[in-house]
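Self-study notes.
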Amino acid sequence: MVYKLMTMLHCIAFFLSFFAFVYSAPAAQDLPRIKLEEDYSENTIIYKGQNDIHGNYRRAKRSTVIKIPLKNYKNYQYHAKVKFGSNNQEYKIMFDTGSGFTWIPKKHSEENTCAKKYKHFESNTFEDFHTVMTTVYVKGEATMKLGSDSVTIGNMVVNNQTLGLAIKSDCEGNEYEGIIGLSFLSINHSSIIQNMLSQGLIKEPVFAFYLNRNHGSTDSELTIGGYNTDHIKNDQLNPIQVTDPEHWQVPIEMVRFGKQVIAVYQKAIIDSGSSLIVAPFKFLQCFIDIIRKSYNIDLKRQENGLLSFKRNQSLKLPNITFVLGNNLYTLTEKDYTIENDQDIEISISFIDYSSDTWILGDLFLQKYYLVFDYGRRTISFPKTRFIDGDLLKSIIDRHLPSKGNSMNIVRIQENIYLLICLFIIFKLNFILTS
């Protein structure tokens, strides 16, 4: 009797362990069907109406939209001149969708390597919050003393803007002298876009980037309060809902490198403050293997961590394709590489930032004009080649390694666990009835 009881307890424990394992496995998910926007052809700067998330677009008053020329610095930084305080102290500012705070270097700070520093004591509109905080970026951080002051962008003056005076930051190697964050902030502080809206400077909390690849030019632009349809082919947009409360993050259905599907169901943060494409570190070896085996290109890692190779006229790297909102967004070798002397540098950084989050920086924004909508928390991408959800899943099934995708593996595991559980139940029943 004791033997039967012990055997039964072991079976129950084994059964519970498998039960927990099965239900902790990731469930298969259907690809989201994104409702695409209707076509619009009004050749002007426009903004979204308030009544319908998928329309209607209508003409904005010119006074509610501002176009800010951005200077291109070596194709990896874009900045504009912005004035701060009542005495209009001018700085080169980078507009960053990867962070929410606005900051400039503080005067009398020895730990700040920035050459030009803000003299807050000369501004009659500066208010000190007597608070110090640190903002962490993908690479590096900035420690700042918080306050508020006026910010002048073009002919638009934003009053009482929360402002960080950086007492510890690194400007070495950067052309910009401060950052205006365009991401989301907590309820305790308002971003500059939110303040523009509440102060009646813009009618819609919408902005858009156009970044070119002409070093030294000022043809790039940031449009606030609307967007410029001159940069959208056929005026067609594909709005995708943001999935993170703090970042401009959208879901990625699939990532393909050449003919190989390398990732499914990932996340992408659209970050104008990052120059490169940033991929999870676990994909580094995958990129290396595909390039070396399929394209016979010998790679080396540089001191900055980026991959590079010697130019071979007969060989080209494969395209990188991101499927976002059931549309294909492709970067060619020309889009994601930089030629230095005899070497070709691949502008993709692999870091342990997250296991499933990619950062699509300026390289992506140089190729695609994106519209950011605070109110609806969407990013609208230009429409490209649409791919049906069922077709997309079949492509994933065909190309993922191990003769199937992760969803099929989960289903197989579930079936095996079910058979084991049935066997355990049968065994328990045999013990109890014998």
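Second protein, same conventions, sequence then structure:
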Amino acid sequence: MFQSGFRAHHSTETALLKVTNDLLIASDHGLVSMLVLLDLSAAFDTVDHSILLHRLEHVIGIKGTALDWFRSYLSDRYQFAHVHGVPSSYSRVSHGVPQGSVLGPILFTLYMLPLGNIIRQHGIHFHCYADDTQLYLSMKPEETEKLLKLQTCLKDIKSWMSSNFLLLNPGKTEFMVFGPEPLRDRLDHMITLDGISLTSSLSVRNLGVTFDQNLSFNSHIKLVSRSAFLPFCMCFCALCLSSPLLSSPLLSSPLLSSPLLSSPFYPLPVLPPLLCPPCHQQEGPPT
């Protein structure tokens, strides 16, 4: 299973580079590509201990004392809630791997190993980062049988996850078509997952990066620019407070003396355009 999470010299960057490079190469060859971003609900909390130990023994080959160590690590764990100094009764934990631990991410990756074999059987490309799985397939618009192959793969993935106590969320799973626009228009932009139709999105957020259908990253650049511009604008407005123009009658309103506006960030929406032109003349960064 190709996994970029919890590995040395791997990160979200390597996962994104791999998938983006494959999609761009396919587009250069006149192909359209379909990307499916699978969404799992509380993946780390639903790992079944019995299945995990069976997988460690029969798939990974861990036996004897080493297997007993893992069994001891997972067993006899309890959890409780503590509210206003009052603890609840203890509840035994039979599912999930300890998050924030060293072994937790490794055990989750091993638990997910069979998923890679299922995807490979259908000839679908994939790349994972922790519990985020990216499936993608490149094809010519007339090769509709490959679209059926992707739907069959999704069906098998859903079945495997159900049998392994993992919850695939069709409502949050996203689907997108990439490639030259004339070719995209010739393709039926819809697949189904668990009876739910997934329509191709114009943009999706993948591991913190916004993808658009042309892989131009214009949407992502605009978002990052806007996010970076807001703190700058706040600092600009804070500097405006020391301006001699503060004695202007425009700023004599009792509202500006409110304790709520004591922070240097609060003047941003109330300063008149006279003092803060960038904030009031445009929503995004200056071009």
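Instructor comment on the second fold: The chain has a mean pLDDT of 80.
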